[in-house]
Amino acid sequence: MPAKMKKGYRALIDEAMAEVKTLSVAEAHKLHEAENIVFVDIRDVRELKAQGAIPGAIHAPRGMLEFWVDPESPYHKPIFSQDKTFVLYCAAGWRSALATKTLQDMGLERVAHIDGGFGAWSEAGFPVEKKEK
């Protein structure tokens, strides 16, 4: 018999969505070329290779994100210390909602995510760049 969850994934996502800034795909597209905005793709590398990515987005795999953001971490990436707004996305907006909430909890103030994620972006016909296989 499987263990009973105290709080399932849906509850975690709902809680995150209530606390984070969520951009519609149209709002995200308007911000795409802005100098003070960094799009962050948190999907697995296999998803990027299979589906492509939003042009100019940096890739920060979900499993490494907290380590790359924290300046105290040996894995810190300097991009996350810049005075920018970070717009996270995943495939559908679930992982990015959780990741955005985590980054807010860590103290990153200017962070948002895209509702519907990369799927919504590509369905809207917005630009996608292919990644090397």
TrEMBL record:
Query: The Rhodanese domain covers which part of the protein?
Result: 33-130
Under the heading PROSITE patterns, the entry gives: RHODANESE_3
Q: Under what name is this protein listed?
A: Rhodanese-like domain-containing protein
Under the heading SUPFAM superfamilies, the entry gives: Rhodanese/Cell cycle control phosphatase (SSF52821)
Q: What is the lineage of its organism?
A: Bacteria, Pseudomonadati, Pseudomonadota, Alphaproteobacteria, Hyphomicrobiales
Q: Name the InterPro entries on file.
A: Rhodanese-like_dom, Rhodanese-like_dom_sf
* Recorded GO MF terms: thiosulfate-cyanide sulfurtransferase activity
Quote any Pfam family the record assigns.
Answer: Rhodanese
